[in-house]
Design brief:
Serine Threonine Protein Phosphatase 5, Tetratricopeptide repeat, 617 residues, 3 domains, alpha/beta, 9% strand, Rossmann fold
Length: 617
Amino acid sequence: MRDGDPGAADAICQHVMAVDPGNAMAMHVSGLVALERHEPRRAMDLMSRAIAARPDFADAFCGRGIAHRQLRQSEPALADFERAIALDSNQAQAHFYIGLASLERNALDIAADKFETALRCEPTLAMALANLGLVRHRQGRLDEAIQIYRRALDVDPLQITTRNNLAGALQDLGHAAEALDIFRHLDAETADPMPGANALTCLNLVPGTPEDFLASAKHWAARFAEPLAKARPRRAQDPDRRLRIGYVAAHGLCRHTLAMTYLPLFSAHDRAAVEIFAYSDLSENREDDVTARIKAVVSTWRRSGGLDDAALADQIAADEIDILVDGIGFAAGSRLLAAARRPAPIQIHFPVMSTTGMTAFDYLVGDEILLPKTVEHALTERAWRLACGFLYQPLDQLPAPAPPPVLRNGFITFGSFNRIAKVGPEAVALWAKVLNRVPTARLVIKSTVGIGAETDRRYRQLFAEHGIAQDRIELHPLYRRDADELRSFDGIDIALDTVPFSGVLTTCAALAMGVPVVTWAGARILERYGAAILTAAGFTEGIANDFETYVARAAQLAASPARLATLRPQLRQNLLASPLCDGPAFARSMEHAYRAMWQNWCALGARPGMTEEVPPT
Protein backbone atom coordinates (compact mmCIF):
# COMPACT_ATOMS: atom_id res chain seq x y z
CA MET A 1 0.00 0.00 0.00
CA ARG A 2 2.87 2.37 0.74
CA ASP A 3 3.88 2.29 -2.92
CA GLY A 4 0.32 2.15 -4.28
CA ASP A 5 -2.88 4.13 -3.96
CA PRO A 6 -4.18 4.29 -0.34
CA GLY A 7 -7.53 5.62 -1.57
CA ALA A 8 -8.01 2.67 -3.89
CA ALA A 9 -6.94 0.24 -1.18
CA ASP A 10 -9.43 1.78 1.24
CA ALA A 11 -12.22 1.59 -1.33
CA ILE A 12 -11.53 -2.12 -1.87
CA CYS A 13 -11.56 -2.69 1.91
CA GLN A 14 -14.86 -0.85 2.28
CA HIS A 15 -16.34 -3.07 -0.43
CA VAL A 16 -15.01 -6.22 1.28
CA MET A 17 -16.42 -5.10 4.66
CA ALA A 18 -19.81 -4.40 3.06
CA VAL A 19 -19.90 -7.97 1.79
CA ASP A 20 -18.14 -9.52 4.81
CA PRO A 21 -18.56 -7.25 7.91
CA GLY A 22 -16.34 -9.44 10.05
CA ASN A 23 -13.32 -9.43 7.72
CA ALA A 24 -10.49 -8.55 10.12
CA MET A 25 -7.87 -8.06 7.40
CA ALA A 26 -10.03 -5.53 5.54
CA MET A 27 -10.58 -3.60 8.77
CA HIS A 28 -6.85 -3.67 9.47
CA VAL A 29 -5.85 -2.42 6.02
CA SER A 30 -8.50 0.30 6.13
CA GLY A 31 -7.13 1.26 9.56
CA LEU A 32 -3.62 1.53 8.10
CA VAL A 33 -4.97 3.92 5.46
CA ALA A 34 -6.54 5.99 8.26
CA LEU A 35 -3.18 6.10 10.07
CA GLU A 36 -1.47 7.23 6.90
CA ARG A 37 -4.07 10.00 6.58
CA HIS A 38 -3.53 10.97 10.25
CA GLU A 39 -7.08 9.95 11.20
CA PRO A 40 -6.24 8.17 14.47
CA ARG A 41 -9.78 7.91 15.87
CA ARG A 42 -11.05 6.21 12.74
CA ALA A 43 -7.96 3.98 12.72
CA MET A 44 -8.55 3.02 16.35
CA ASP A 45 -12.15 2.08 15.65
CA LEU A 46 -11.16 -0.08 12.69
CA MET A 47 -8.28 -1.77 14.54
CA SER A 48 -10.52 -2.45 17.56
CA ARG A 49 -13.13 -4.04 15.32
CA ALA A 50 -10.41 -6.16 13.71
CA ILE A 51 -9.25 -7.30 17.16
CA ALA A 52 -12.85 -8.10 18.19
CA ALA A 53 -13.20 -10.22 15.07
CA ARG A 54 -9.81 -11.87 15.55
CA PRO A 55 -8.43 -11.56 19.12
CA ASP A 56 -5.01 -12.99 18.19
CA PHE A 57 -4.42 -10.42 15.40
CA ALA A 58 -0.99 -9.05 16.38
CA ASP A 59 -0.81 -6.59 13.47
CA ALA A 60 -4.11 -5.00 14.56
CA PHE A 61 -2.85 -4.56 18.13
CA CYS A 62 0.25 -2.84 16.72
CA GLY A 63 -1.88 -0.64 14.48
CA ARG A 64 -4.11 0.37 17.36
CA GLY A 65 -1.01 1.18 19.40
CA ILE A 66 0.10 3.55 16.63
CA ALA A 67 -3.33 5.20 16.71
CA HIS A 68 -3.00 5.67 20.47
CA ARG A 69 0.42 7.28 19.88
CA GLN A 70 -1.03 9.69 17.34
CA LEU A 71 -3.56 10.67 20.02
CA ARG A 72 -0.73 11.00 22.60
CA GLN A 73 -2.18 8.18 24.69
CA SER A 74 1.09 6.62 25.80
CA GLU A 75 -0.05 3.97 28.30
CA PRO A 76 -2.68 2.26 26.11
CA ALA A 77 -0.24 2.49 23.19
CA LEU A 78 2.41 0.65 25.19
CA ALA A 79 -0.11 -1.97 26.29
CA ASP A 80 -1.12 -2.64 22.67
CA PHE A 81 2.49 -2.89 21.48
CA GLU A 82 3.33 -5.33 24.28
CA ARG A 83 0.24 -7.41 23.44
CA ALA A 84 1.29 -7.50 19.77
CA ILE A 85 4.73 -8.81 20.76
CA ALA A 86 3.20 -11.38 23.11
CA LEU A 87 1.19 -12.69 20.14
CA ASP A 88 4.07 -12.44 17.67
CA SER A 89 7.62 -11.81 18.91
CA ASN A 90 8.67 -10.77 15.39
CA GLN A 91 6.51 -7.63 15.44
CA ALA A 92 9.24 -5.25 14.28
CA GLN A 93 7.06 -2.13 14.42
CA ALA A 94 5.85 -2.87 17.94
CA HIS A 95 9.45 -3.26 19.14
CA PHE A 96 10.30 -0.04 17.30
CA TYR A 97 7.53 1.99 18.92
CA ILE A 98 8.38 0.77 22.41
CA GLY A 99 11.94 1.85 21.65
CA LEU A 100 10.69 5.22 20.45
CA ALA A 101 8.73 5.75 23.68
CA SER A 102 11.88 4.89 25.63
CA LEU A 103 13.90 7.35 23.58
CA GLU A 104 11.34 10.06 24.27
CA ARG A 105 11.82 9.63 28.01
CA ASN A 106 15.61 9.50 27.53
CA ALA A 107 15.93 5.81 28.50
CA LEU A 108 18.64 5.35 25.90
CA ASP A 109 19.82 1.84 26.75
CA ILE A 110 16.28 0.45 26.65
CA ALA A 111 15.59 2.30 23.42
CA ALA A 112 18.72 0.89 21.79
CA ASP A 113 17.78 -2.66 22.83
CA LYS A 114 14.28 -2.34 21.35
CA PHE A 115 15.54 -0.80 18.09
CA GLU A 116 18.10 -3.59 17.73
CA THR A 117 15.36 -6.16 18.36
CA ALA A 118 13.20 -4.51 15.69
CA LEU A 119 16.12 -4.71 13.27
CA ARG A 120 16.64 -8.39 13.96
CA CYS A 121 13.00 -8.85 12.95
CA GLU A 122 13.25 -6.53 9.94
CA PRO A 123 16.85 -5.58 9.05
CA THR A 124 15.80 -2.87 6.58
CA LEU A 125 13.38 -1.02 8.87
CA ALA A 126 14.68 2.46 8.09
CA MET A 127 12.99 4.21 10.99
CA ALA A 128 14.58 1.77 13.47
CA LEU A 129 18.00 2.36 11.93
CA ALA A 130 17.51 6.13 12.00
CA ASN A 131 16.49 6.15 15.65
CA LEU A 132 19.19 3.69 16.71
CA GLY A 133 21.62 6.12 15.11
CA LEU A 134 20.06 8.92 17.17
CA VAL A 135 20.47 6.91 20.38
CA ARG A 136 24.15 6.30 19.65
CA HIS A 137 24.48 10.00 18.80
CA ARG A 138 23.05 11.02 22.17
CA GLN A 139 25.22 8.48 23.94
CA GLY A 140 28.26 10.12 22.37
CA ARG A 141 29.11 7.03 20.31
CA LEU A 142 29.38 9.08 17.15
CA ASP A 143 31.43 6.76 14.95
CA GLU A 144 28.66 4.16 15.41
CA ALA A 145 25.94 6.76 14.90
CA ILE A 146 27.41 7.82 11.56
CA GLN A 147 27.62 4.23 10.33
CA ILE A 148 24.01 3.54 11.35
CA TYR A 149 22.71 6.77 9.81
CA ARG A 150 24.41 5.81 6.55
CA ARG A 151 22.76 2.36 6.68
CA ALA A 152 19.38 4.02 7.18
CA LEU A 153 19.99 6.27 4.16
CA ASP A 154 21.02 3.26 2.05
CA VAL A 155 17.51 1.92 2.72
CA ASP A 156 15.70 5.25 2.30
CA PRO A 157 17.91 8.00 0.82
CA LEU A 158 15.16 10.63 1.13
CA GLN A 159 14.94 10.71 4.92
CA ILE A 160 15.35 14.41 5.64
CA THR A 161 15.69 14.05 9.41
CA THR A 162 18.27 11.28 9.09
CA ARG A 163 20.35 13.30 6.63
CA ASN A 164 20.18 16.23 9.04
CA ASN A 165 21.21 14.00 11.97
CA LEU A 166 24.05 12.50 9.93
CA ALA A 167 25.32 16.00 9.24
CA GLY A 168 25.05 16.78 12.95
CA ALA A 169 27.09 13.71 13.88
CA LEU A 170 29.72 14.54 11.26
CA GLN A 171 29.90 18.08 12.62
CA ASP A 172 30.25 16.79 16.19
CA LEU A 173 33.23 14.66 15.14
CA GLY A 174 35.10 17.49 13.43
CA HIS A 175 33.91 16.95 9.83
CA ALA A 176 32.49 20.48 9.63
CA ALA A 177 33.00 21.00 5.89
CA GLU A 178 31.18 17.75 4.99
CA ALA A 179 28.41 18.53 7.46
CA LEU A 180 27.99 22.04 6.09
CA ASP A 181 27.61 20.68 2.58
CA ILE A 182 24.78 18.36 3.70
CA PHE A 183 23.03 21.10 5.67
CA ARG A 184 23.18 23.45 2.68
CA HIS A 185 21.78 20.82 0.31
CA LEU A 186 18.93 20.13 2.73
CA ASP A 187 18.27 23.84 3.11
CA ALA A 188 17.99 24.18 -0.66
CA GLU A 189 15.77 21.10 -1.02
CA THR A 190 13.26 21.67 1.77
CA ALA A 191 11.08 24.35 3.33
CA ASP A 192 12.20 23.27 6.79
CA PRO A 193 14.08 26.02 8.70
CA MET A 194 16.18 23.56 10.72
CA PRO A 195 18.86 22.63 8.14
CA GLY A 196 19.53 26.29 7.39
CA ALA A 197 19.83 27.10 11.10
CA ASN A 198 22.19 24.15 11.51
CA ALA A 199 24.25 25.39 8.57
CA LEU A 200 24.64 28.75 10.30
CA THR A 201 25.90 27.07 13.46
CA CYS A 202 28.27 24.96 11.38
CA LEU A 203 29.61 28.05 9.57
CA ASN A 204 31.40 29.04 12.77
CA LEU A 205 33.44 25.84 12.60
CA VAL A 206 35.01 26.64 9.23
CA PRO A 207 37.01 29.72 8.20
CA GLY A 208 34.89 32.69 7.17
CA THR A 209 34.16 36.36 7.65
CA PRO A 210 31.50 38.33 9.56
CA GLU A 211 30.18 39.54 6.21
CA ASP A 212 29.73 35.98 4.93
CA PHE A 213 27.88 35.02 8.08
CA LEU A 214 25.62 38.06 7.87
CA ALA A 215 24.68 37.25 4.27
CA SER A 216 23.78 33.67 5.19
CA ALA A 217 21.83 34.74 8.29
CA LYS A 218 19.85 37.33 6.34
CA HIS A 219 19.08 34.75 3.66
CA TRP A 220 17.72 32.36 6.30
CA ALA A 221 15.77 35.14 8.00
CA ALA A 222 14.24 36.30 4.71
CA ARG A 223 12.94 32.76 4.05
CA PHE A 224 11.73 31.81 7.50
CA ALA A 225 11.64 34.69 9.98
CA GLU A 226 10.57 37.86 8.14
CA PRO A 227 7.30 36.36 6.78
CA LEU A 228 6.24 35.87 10.43
CA ALA A 229 6.97 39.45 11.50
CA LYS A 230 4.35 41.35 13.48
CA ALA A 231 4.17 44.87 14.86
CA ARG A 232 5.76 45.46 18.24
CA PRO A 233 3.21 44.82 20.97
CA ARG A 234 2.28 47.72 23.23
CA ARG A 235 2.94 47.80 26.95
CA ALA A 236 2.30 50.37 29.69
CA GLN A 237 4.79 53.14 28.91
CA ASP A 238 6.05 53.76 32.42
CA PRO A 239 9.84 54.15 32.16
CA ASP A 240 10.44 53.31 35.81
CA ARG A 241 8.10 50.39 36.49
CA ARG A 242 9.16 46.85 37.31
CA LEU A 243 10.04 45.06 34.08
CA ARG A 244 9.04 41.59 33.00
CA ILE A 245 12.09 39.85 31.52
CA GLY A 246 11.58 36.59 29.65
CA TYR A 247 14.52 34.27 29.11
CA VAL A 248 14.15 31.68 26.33
CA ALA A 249 16.62 28.89 27.10
CA ALA A 250 15.40 25.82 25.15
CA HIS A 251 17.18 22.84 26.80
CA GLY A 252 19.80 24.91 28.63
CA LEU A 253 18.36 25.18 32.15
CA CYS A 254 20.00 22.04 33.52
CA ARG A 255 23.60 20.76 33.65
CA HIS A 256 24.32 22.63 30.45
CA THR A 257 26.74 25.37 29.53
CA LEU A 258 23.99 28.01 29.43
CA ALA A 259 23.14 27.37 33.09
CA MET A 260 26.64 28.48 34.12
CA THR A 261 25.64 31.95 32.95
CA TYR A 262 21.90 32.08 33.57
CA LEU A 263 21.88 30.55 37.09
CA PRO A 264 24.17 33.20 38.65
CA LEU A 265 22.38 35.94 36.70
CA PHE A 266 18.91 34.83 37.80
CA SER A 267 20.12 34.37 41.38
CA ALA A 268 21.46 37.94 41.56
CA HIS A 269 18.61 39.77 39.80
CA ASP A 270 16.96 42.52 41.84
CA ARG A 271 13.36 41.31 42.28
CA ALA A 272 12.21 44.88 42.87
CA ALA A 273 13.51 45.86 39.42
CA VAL A 274 12.71 42.79 37.32
CA GLU A 275 10.30 39.89 37.29
CA ILE A 276 11.95 36.82 35.74
CA PHE A 277 10.12 34.41 33.41
CA ALA A 278 12.04 31.31 32.29
CA TYR A 279 10.87 29.38 29.21
CA SER A 280 12.32 25.87 29.27
CA ASP A 281 11.90 23.16 26.63
CA LEU A 282 13.20 20.48 29.00
CA SER A 283 10.84 17.57 29.53
CA GLU A 284 10.16 16.87 33.19
CA ASN A 285 12.31 13.72 33.13
CA ARG A 286 15.33 15.69 31.85
CA GLU A 287 15.22 18.30 34.58
CA ASP A 288 17.94 17.88 37.20
CA ASP A 289 19.41 19.40 40.35
CA VAL A 290 20.52 22.52 38.46
CA THR A 291 17.00 22.90 37.08
CA ALA A 292 15.69 22.83 40.65
CA ARG A 293 18.12 25.58 41.66
CA ILE A 294 17.01 27.72 38.74
CA LYS A 295 13.31 27.17 39.46
CA ALA A 296 13.90 28.39 43.00
CA VAL A 297 15.15 31.82 41.85
CA VAL A 298 12.82 32.69 38.95
CA SER A 299 9.45 34.36 39.34
CA THR A 300 7.67 32.16 36.79
CA TRP A 301 8.70 28.85 35.24
CA ARG A 302 7.13 27.95 31.91
CA ARG A 303 7.56 24.44 30.57
CA SER A 304 7.49 25.23 26.83
CA GLY A 305 8.71 21.99 25.26
CA GLY A 306 5.21 21.05 24.13
CA LEU A 307 4.67 24.39 22.40
CA ASP A 308 5.56 25.05 18.79
CA ASP A 309 7.11 28.41 17.92
CA ALA A 310 3.74 30.09 17.30
CA ALA A 311 2.31 28.83 20.61
CA LEU A 312 5.46 29.86 22.48
CA ALA A 313 5.18 33.36 21.00
CA ASP A 314 1.55 33.47 22.12
CA GLN A 315 2.55 32.43 25.65
CA ILE A 316 5.26 35.11 25.82
CA ALA A 317 2.76 37.71 24.62
CA ALA A 318 0.17 36.51 27.13
CA ASP A 319 2.78 36.88 29.89
CA GLU A 320 3.20 40.51 28.77
CA ILE A 321 6.97 40.21 28.61
CA ASP A 322 8.66 43.60 28.21
CA ILE A 323 12.12 42.39 27.20
CA LEU A 324 12.70 38.96 25.68
CA VAL A 325 16.18 37.45 25.98
CA ASP A 326 17.09 34.61 23.61
CA GLY A 327 19.96 32.50 24.88
CA ILE A 328 20.15 29.91 22.10
CA GLY A 329 20.50 31.65 18.74
CA PHE A 330 20.86 29.17 15.89
CA ALA A 331 22.09 26.34 18.14
CA ALA A 332 20.20 23.09 18.70
CA GLY A 333 16.72 23.77 20.04
CA SER A 334 16.63 27.23 18.44
CA ARG A 335 13.50 29.27 19.19
CA LEU A 336 14.29 32.18 16.90
CA LEU A 337 11.04 31.66 15.01
CA ALA A 338 9.09 32.36 18.20
CA ALA A 339 10.93 35.66 18.53
CA ALA A 340 10.32 36.32 14.82
CA ARG A 341 6.64 36.83 15.70
CA ARG A 342 7.66 39.79 17.91
CA PRO A 343 5.93 38.74 21.17
CA ALA A 344 7.79 41.40 23.21
CA PRO A 345 8.47 45.09 22.52
CA ILE A 346 12.23 44.68 23.00
CA GLN A 347 14.11 41.53 22.02
CA ILE A 348 17.78 40.77 22.58
CA HIS A 349 20.24 37.91 22.15
CA PHE A 350 22.49 37.04 25.11
CA PRO A 351 24.95 35.38 25.53
CA VAL A 352 25.85 36.64 22.09
CA MET A 353 26.91 34.07 19.49
CA SER A 354 26.23 35.80 16.20
CA THR A 355 23.93 38.18 14.45
CA THR A 356 20.51 36.63 13.89
CA GLY A 357 20.04 38.39 10.54
CA MET A 358 16.49 39.19 11.74
CA THR A 359 14.68 42.51 12.07
CA ALA A 360 12.84 41.16 15.13
CA PHE A 361 15.93 41.47 17.35
CA ASP A 362 16.91 44.87 18.64
CA TYR A 363 20.19 44.26 20.46
CA LEU A 364 23.13 41.92 20.89
CA VAL A 365 24.62 42.19 24.38
CA GLY A 366 28.37 41.72 24.78
CA ASP A 367 31.45 43.83 25.39
CA GLU A 368 33.98 45.71 23.30
CA ILE A 369 35.96 42.55 22.57
CA LEU A 370 33.02 40.35 21.56
CA LEU A 371 31.35 43.21 19.69
CA PRO A 372 34.09 45.55 18.44
CA LYS A 373 33.00 48.53 16.37
CA THR A 374 34.69 46.90 13.37
CA VAL A 375 31.90 44.29 13.16
CA GLU A 376 28.89 46.61 13.56
CA HIS A 377 28.35 46.71 9.79
CA ALA A 378 27.91 42.92 9.84
CA LEU A 379 25.05 42.95 12.38
CA THR A 380 21.33 43.47 11.85
CA GLU A 381 21.00 44.34 15.55
CA ARG A 382 22.52 47.17 17.57
CA ALA A 383 25.48 46.24 19.76
CA TRP A 384 24.95 46.95 23.46
CA ARG A 385 28.28 46.78 25.24
CA LEU A 386 28.78 46.04 28.92
CA ALA A 387 32.08 46.38 30.74
CA CYS A 388 32.19 42.56 30.74
CA GLY A 389 30.00 40.69 28.27
CA PHE A 390 29.91 37.24 29.86
CA LEU A 391 29.23 35.59 33.23
CA TYR A 392 30.57 32.28 34.56
CA GLN A 393 29.83 30.30 37.68
CA PRO A 394 30.85 26.64 38.07
CA LEU A 395 27.89 24.41 38.88
CA ASP A 396 29.85 22.55 41.58
CA GLN A 397 32.54 23.34 44.11
CA LEU A 398 35.93 23.51 42.41
CA PRO A 399 38.64 21.03 43.39
CA ALA A 400 41.97 22.53 44.40
CA PRO A 401 44.46 23.16 41.56
CA ALA A 402 47.39 20.73 41.32
CA PRO A 403 51.00 21.60 40.42
CA PRO A 404 51.73 21.62 36.68
CA PRO A 405 52.62 18.11 35.45
CA VAL A 406 55.84 19.33 33.81
CA LEU A 407 57.38 19.40 37.29
CA ARG A 408 57.07 15.61 37.58
CA ASN A 409 57.13 14.62 33.88
CA GLY A 410 60.02 16.72 32.67
CA PHE A 411 58.12 17.68 29.48
CA ILE A 412 55.25 20.02 28.63
CA THR A 413 51.75 18.65 28.15
CA PHE A 414 49.47 20.80 26.05
CA GLY A 415 45.75 20.05 26.07
CA SER A 416 42.37 20.80 24.56
CA PHE A 417 39.15 19.77 26.30
CA ASN A 418 36.86 21.54 23.86
CA ARG A 419 34.18 19.78 21.87
CA ILE A 420 35.85 17.68 19.18
CA ALA A 421 33.57 19.46 16.70
CA LYS A 422 35.85 22.47 17.09
CA VAL A 423 38.99 20.46 16.29
CA GLY A 424 39.06 20.74 12.53
CA PRO A 425 41.97 20.83 10.06
CA GLU A 426 42.80 24.44 10.98
CA ALA A 427 43.21 23.62 14.69
CA VAL A 428 45.28 20.51 13.93
CA ALA A 429 47.61 22.48 11.65
CA LEU A 430 48.06 25.21 14.25
CA TRP A 431 48.66 22.81 17.13
CA ALA A 432 51.14 20.86 15.03
CA LYS A 433 53.14 24.07 14.62
CA VAL A 434 53.15 24.44 18.40
CA LEU A 435 54.34 20.85 18.84
CA ASN A 436 57.05 21.35 16.23
CA ARG A 437 58.19 24.50 18.06
CA VAL A 438 58.28 22.58 21.38
CA PRO A 439 59.60 19.19 20.15
CA THR A 440 59.49 17.38 23.52
CA ALA A 441 55.90 18.35 24.26
CA ARG A 442 52.82 16.18 24.03
CA LEU A 443 49.18 17.00 23.35
CA VAL A 444 46.11 15.59 25.12
CA ILE A 445 42.72 15.96 23.42
CA LYS A 446 39.63 15.18 25.46
CA SER A 447 36.08 15.59 24.24
CA THR A 448 32.54 15.61 25.56
CA VAL A 449 31.67 12.87 23.04
CA GLY A 450 33.05 9.40 22.54
CA ILE A 451 36.14 9.18 20.36
CA GLY A 452 35.89 5.85 18.58
CA ALA A 453 38.63 3.95 16.83
CA GLU A 454 37.89 5.54 13.43
CA THR A 455 38.06 9.08 14.82
CA ASP A 456 41.22 8.26 16.76
CA ARG A 457 42.89 7.00 13.58
CA ARG A 458 41.74 10.05 11.59
CA TYR A 459 43.19 12.58 14.02
CA ARG A 460 46.46 10.72 14.36
CA GLN A 461 46.73 10.71 10.56
CA LEU A 462 46.01 14.45 10.40
CA PHE A 463 48.77 15.16 12.89
CA ALA A 464 51.13 12.75 11.10
CA GLU A 465 50.64 14.77 7.91
CA HIS A 466 52.20 17.68 9.80
CA GLY A 467 55.12 15.60 11.03
CA ILE A 468 53.81 14.80 14.52
CA ALA A 469 54.55 11.28 15.79
CA GLN A 470 51.60 9.27 17.10
CA ASP A 471 53.12 8.81 20.56
CA ARG A 472 52.92 12.58 21.11
CA ILE A 473 49.13 12.62 20.77
CA GLU A 474 46.62 11.28 23.32
CA LEU A 475 42.88 11.22 22.58
CA HIS A 476 40.39 10.55 25.36
CA PRO A 477 36.59 10.42 25.20
CA LEU A 478 33.75 11.68 27.33
CA TYR A 479 35.17 14.57 29.29
CA ARG A 480 32.46 16.27 31.36
CA ARG A 481 32.55 19.58 33.18
CA ASP A 482 31.56 18.47 36.68
CA ALA A 483 33.88 18.79 39.65
CA ASP A 484 35.40 15.30 39.35
CA GLU A 485 36.16 15.68 35.68
CA LEU A 486 37.77 19.08 36.27
CA ARG A 487 40.59 17.06 37.78
CA SER A 488 41.49 16.20 34.17
CA PHE A 489 43.07 19.65 33.94
CA ASP A 490 45.64 18.49 36.50
CA GLY A 491 47.21 16.50 33.66
CA ILE A 492 47.99 19.42 31.36
CA ASP A 493 50.32 22.41 31.65
CA ILE A 494 48.88 24.70 28.97
CA ALA A 495 45.49 24.70 27.24
CA LEU A 496 45.44 25.34 23.49
CA ASP A 497 42.25 27.00 22.32
CA THR A 498 40.50 25.85 19.16
CA VAL A 499 40.30 27.79 15.91
CA PRO A 500 38.32 29.26 14.31
CA PHE A 501 35.55 28.63 16.89
CA SER A 502 37.11 29.39 20.27
CA GLY A 503 36.31 27.79 23.58
CA VAL A 504 34.02 29.48 26.08
CA LEU A 505 33.15 27.45 29.18
CA THR A 506 36.17 25.19 28.60
CA THR A 507 38.41 28.26 28.71
CA CYS A 508 36.77 29.35 31.97
CA ALA A 509 37.21 25.84 33.40
CA ALA A 510 40.91 25.79 32.47
CA LEU A 511 41.51 29.10 34.23
CA ALA A 512 39.51 27.89 37.23
CA MET A 513 41.94 24.97 37.50
CA GLY A 514 44.96 27.25 37.14
CA VAL A 515 45.81 26.25 33.56
CA PRO A 516 46.92 29.08 31.25
CA VAL A 517 45.17 29.28 27.88
CA VAL A 518 46.50 30.41 24.52
CA THR A 519 43.80 31.75 22.22
CA TRP A 520 43.47 33.41 18.82
CA ALA A 521 41.22 36.45 18.42
CA GLY A 522 39.57 36.34 15.00
CA ALA A 523 36.96 38.61 13.45
CA ARG A 524 33.71 36.71 14.10
CA ILE A 525 32.03 36.78 17.52
CA LEU A 526 32.64 33.11 18.31
CA GLU A 527 36.30 33.57 17.39
CA ARG A 528 36.67 36.19 20.14
CA TYR A 529 35.36 34.58 23.32
CA GLY A 530 38.78 33.34 24.37
CA ALA A 531 40.18 36.86 24.09
CA ALA A 532 37.20 38.32 25.98
CA ILE A 533 37.52 35.79 28.81
CA LEU A 534 41.31 36.10 29.14
CA THR A 535 41.05 39.89 29.15
CA ALA A 536 38.41 39.88 31.89
CA ALA A 537 40.49 37.39 33.90
CA GLY A 538 43.65 39.47 33.54
CA PHE A 539 45.69 37.02 31.43
CA THR A 540 46.17 38.95 28.22
CA GLU A 541 49.55 37.30 27.56
CA GLY A 542 47.59 34.31 26.28
CA ILE A 543 45.91 36.29 23.48
CA ALA A 544 47.22 36.23 19.90
CA ASN A 545 45.90 38.19 16.93
CA ASP A 546 47.51 35.87 14.37
CA PHE A 547 48.63 32.26 14.20
CA GLU A 548 52.35 33.05 14.33
CA THR A 549 51.87 34.89 17.62
CA TYR A 550 49.72 32.03 18.92
CA VAL A 551 52.61 29.58 18.37
CA ALA A 552 55.07 32.00 19.96
CA ARG A 553 52.88 32.57 23.04
CA ALA A 554 52.50 28.82 23.56
CA ALA A 555 56.24 28.28 23.21
CA GLN A 556 57.03 31.12 25.62
CA LEU A 557 54.79 29.64 28.31
CA ALA A 558 56.26 26.17 27.71
CA ALA A 559 59.79 27.50 28.17
CA SER A 560 59.21 28.42 31.83
CA PRO A 561 57.99 25.61 34.12
CA ALA A 562 58.57 27.89 37.11
CA ARG A 563 56.20 30.46 35.60
CA LEU A 564 53.57 27.74 35.07
CA ALA A 565 53.88 26.73 38.74
CA THR A 566 53.36 30.34 39.81
CA LEU A 567 50.35 30.75 37.52
CA ARG A 568 48.54 27.68 38.89
CA PRO A 569 47.06 29.34 42.01
CA GLN A 570 47.09 32.87 40.55
CA LEU A 571 44.88 32.16 37.55
CA ARG A 572 42.07 30.75 39.68
CA GLN A 573 42.27 33.63 42.15
CA ASN A 574 42.24 36.18 39.35
CA LEU A 575 39.34 34.48 37.57
CA LEU A 576 37.14 34.23 40.67
CA ALA A 577 37.89 37.85 41.57
CA SER A 578 37.17 39.08 38.05
CA PRO A 579 33.95 40.52 36.57
CA LEU A 580 33.41 37.14 34.87
CA CYS A 581 32.46 35.60 38.22
CA ASP A 582 30.75 38.57 39.87
CA GLY A 583 27.08 37.65 39.55
CA PRO A 584 25.66 40.62 41.50
CA ALA A 585 27.70 43.18 39.56
CA PHE A 586 26.82 41.53 36.26
CA ALA A 587 23.12 41.47 37.18
CA ARG A 588 23.23 45.19 37.99
CA SER A 589 24.91 45.81 34.64
CA MET A 590 22.25 43.84 32.78
CA GLU A 591 19.46 45.56 34.70
CA HIS A 592 20.94 48.95 33.85
CA ALA A 593 20.97 47.90 30.19
CA TYR A 594 17.38 46.64 30.37
CA ARG A 595 16.25 49.89 32.00
CA ALA A 596 18.02 52.03 29.41
CA MET A 597 16.58 49.97 26.55
CA TRP A 598 13.12 50.27 28.08
CA GLN A 599 13.44 54.02 28.62
CA ASN A 600 14.57 54.41 25.01
CA TRP A 601 11.44 52.59 23.91
CA CYS A 602 9.17 54.66 26.15
CA ALA A 603 10.80 57.93 25.09
CA LEU A 604 10.10 57.15 21.45
CA GLY A 605 6.41 56.71 22.15
CA ALA A 606 6.72 52.89 21.97
CA ARG A 607 5.95 53.13 18.31
CA PRO A 608 6.63 50.24 15.93
CA GLY A 609 9.66 50.52 13.72
CA MET A 610 11.56 52.85 16.06
CA THR A 611 14.90 53.81 14.57
CA GLU A 612 16.29 56.60 16.76
CA GLU A 613 17.62 55.62 20.15
CA VAL A 614 19.77 56.87 22.94
CA PRO A 615 23.21 55.37 22.19
CA PRO A 616 23.95 52.16 24.12
CA THR A 617 26.52 52.37 26.89
